[in-house]
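Work Package 3 (structural annotation) set out to generate three-dimensional models for the target panel prioritized at the project kickoff. During this period the team completed the workflow that converts sequence records into discrete structure tokens, so that structures can be stored uniformly alongside our sequence database. As a representative example, we reproduce one entry of 151 residues exactly as it appears in the project archive.
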Amino acid sequence: MQIVIRKYEPKDEKSVNKINKLTLEINFSSIYGIFHRNYPDLFLVAENRTSKEIVGFVLVAITKKFEQNDSGLIYAIGIHPKYQNKGIGKQLVNKVIENLKKRNIKSLYLHVKETNQKAINFYSNLGFEIIEHIKKFYSWGEGAYRMRLSI
């Protein structure tokens, strides 16, 4: 199966929302438009080249929350369960890194639930490092790890 990583388009909303609901505890649908307008090169989808099915997405913003200079922040990444463990998440993150480099951004951050060992391993294998444990990060009281990748 060949995957194409491309910019999100409004016609992708239904597919992205389905993947969001299947894979994440937080529904990000209310901010798709904001990311599409403000960070079009950082709101990406993974599309099956043959079927044109959207099989994954990543939402990334630019922020000054963590450093004096701009850095990237992954808000969400979701891969349809049928397509997980096939390298699609890695392709999405690599394309984000490529696009951040074009913006001269040197760091990429994310938050991951402290109990989500699968995601922690995924990000660690991509070179992210845990830099902080934040208790009660999520609205439901669960803690998170802040992770950082130097790019």
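The first helix runs from residue 13 to 23.
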